[in-house]
From TrEMBL:
InterPro entries: cNMP-bd_dom, cNMP-bd_dom_sf, Env_Response_Regulators, RmlC-like_jellyroll. GO terms for molecular function: DNA-binding transcription factor activity. Gene3D superfamilies: Jelly Rolls (2.60.120.10). It comes from Ferirhizobium litorale. Residues 15-118 form the Cyclic nucleotide-binding domain. PROSITE patterns: CNMP_BINDING_3. This is Cyclic nucleotide-binding domain-containing protein. SMART domains: cNMP.
């Protein structure tokens, strides 16, 4: 896929919306594209997260261990979905096991690349921080709404 296609895809990721072409180009150029075969695991629940992924094509199942101790499908991630966004900022633990349900492509964004973006464009740091904060609040609300499934 061409760099311009990756830039277009990244521009549609909510966390990166509003970034300029130069900022998106920096991410797209520095990121790594990976192919996943159907059934291939991208990452495992509870493993340390050193990067985030944007699903470029295909579908990725997000599996989590339920209260019964069994893995349950918690959701799916399709094109344009950002997985593990906090990993771009700090070391966190993966909350899901991500498995491709079909041949898929992902874009890997390392923490070092994201920090470089913030260093080269400090004016966007506040906007990105605000979006991450908003995403965390929305995620907490969604988790609270699903708590009954795990009781």
């Amino acid at each position: 896929m061409a760099l311009s296609d990756d830039i277009r895809l990244l521009a549609n990721v909510p966390l990166f919306s509003g970034l300029g072409e130069d900022q998106l180009r920096l991410i797209a150029f520095g990121a790594e594209r990976r192919h996943l075969a159907s059934g291939q695991t991208l990452f495992r629940e509870k493993s340390p997260a050193e990067c985030a992924y944007v699903v470029a094509s295909g579908d990725v199942a997000l599996n989590a261990t339920g209260r019964s101790g069994k893995s349950e499908v918690a959701g799916h991630a399709g094109p344009g979905t950002l997985l593990s966004e906090l990993a771009m900022v700090t070391l966190v633990e993966r909350k899901f096991t991500a498995v491709a349900t079909q041949d898929s492509e992902v874009i890997r964004i390392s923490r070092a690349l994201f920090h470089r973006l913030l260093e080269e464009y400090p004016d966007i740091a506040a906007a990105v921080e605000s979006r991450i904060r908003d995403n965390l609040a929305a995620m907490a609300t969604q988790a609270a709404a699903m708590q009954h499934r795990f009781d």
